[in-house]
Amino acid sequence: MNRNNPPIPVPLLMLVGIVAISFSSIFIKWSVAPVSVQGMYRLLFTFLLMLPFARPYSGAAAALRLRDWLLLFASGTMLALHFLLWMGSLTFTSVASSTMIMALQPVFIMVGAYIWYKEKTAGSAILGMGIAILGVVFIGWGDVGLSADHLKGDLLSIGGTVAVAIHMLIGQKLVVRMPSFLYSLMVFFSAVIVFAVYNLAAGIPFFNYPAREWGIFVLLAVVPTVFGHILFNWLLQYVSATTVSMNILGEPVGASLLAFLLLGEQLKALQWAGGLLVLFGLAVYVFAGRRIHNDFIDKGVTINE
Predict the structure, then answer these.
(1) How distant, in Å, are the alpha carbons of 52, 232, 240, 253, 299 from that of 302?
(2) Ranges for the EamA domain (predicted)?
(3) Does the global pTM surpass 0.85?
(4) What's the structural domain count of the chain?
(5) What does the alpha-carbon distance between residue 152 and residue 121 come to, in Å, rounded to a whole number?
(6) For each of the chain's 305 residues, which pLDDT tens digit applies?
(7) How far, in Å, CA of 205 to CA of 190, rounded?
(8) Is residue 110 part of a domain?
(9) Is the residue at 4 inside a domain?
(10) Domain that holds residue 50
C-alpha cells in the first residue's frame, strides 16, 4: 500500500464517493430496462469514457502476468454479479432495505481480509463498525422481510454484497501491482463481457430502448461509477479495502434520503435514527483506521502488501 497521502484529503473524497453512489439506486428505479442491460451499458459507457486516457498505461498492461489477467477477469466477473444481483433486488424491495443489506459488506470484507491478507482490525474500529451496522439495520428494519417479494429482494442483495466484497478484496491485491486506472479499466471491460454473454444467452435485446433509458445508462456511468466506484478503486492505494467498504456504509443514508425526496419512499423515525448512527459509526471507524495507518507509517512499515 502507498505510504503517501492522496492529494485531496481522504474524508472529502469519501464524501464525494458516497454522494455519487447514493444516486445509483435512484437511477435504477427510474429505468424500466432489464437490470443486466443497465449494468452492461453502465460499465460500457464508463469504459469508453476512460479509454482515451489509457495510452500511458499500455506499458503497465504489457507487463501483466497471466495470473494478473485471470484475477482481473475474476474481479470483473464478481463486479458484474454484484450489479446483476443488487440491481435486481431493487425490483422487489425498497431502496432503504436493499442498500442497508449491501452496506453490510464490511463484515464479509473484514473476514476475507483476515483470512487472505492477515489484516487485523483494532477494537475501536470494530466498535465503529458495530455502531454503523446497527444504524444500517435500523434504516431497513421497517420493511425487511414483510413479504415474499421483500424476502427475494433481500436475498438478492445479500448475494450482491458477497460478490462486491470478493471484488474489492481481489482489487486490494491487484492495485499494489498496477495503476488503479488500469485496474478499473480492465475490470469494467471484463464485467461488460460477462454481461454481454449473459444477455445474449438469456435472449435479452441489446438495443431498442427509448432515449430516456439511454440517458439513464449514461447517468449510471458518470455519477455512481466514475465518481463512486472508480474513486473507491483509486483510494485502495492509500487505505485498506475494509476502510473503503466502511465508508460505503454512508450509501444507505444518502440513498434513503434521495428515495424519500425523489421516489416518495417513506422513512420511519427508526430509519432516520439509523442514519445518524451510521454517520457516527463511520466517524469512529475512520478515526481509528487513520490512526492505525499513521502508526504503521511512523514505524516505516508497509501494510496489506
Answers:
(1) 33, 20, 12, 33, 9
(2) 12-140, 152-286
(3) no
(4) 1
(5) 33
(6) 554 677 888 888 888 999 999 999 999 999 999 999 999 999 999 999 999 999 999 999 999 999 999 999 999 999 999 999 999 999 988 888 888 888 777 777 777 777 777 777 677 777 887 887 887 777 767 666 556 777 788 889 989 989 998 998 998 889 888 988 899 899 999 999 999 999 999 999 999 999 999 999 999 999 998 898 788 878 877 877 667 766 667 888 889 889 989 998 877 777 678 878 887 887 787 666 554 444 333 333 222 22
(7) 20
(8) yes
(9) no
(10) 10-297
Q: Confirm whether 2 is domain-assigned.
A: no
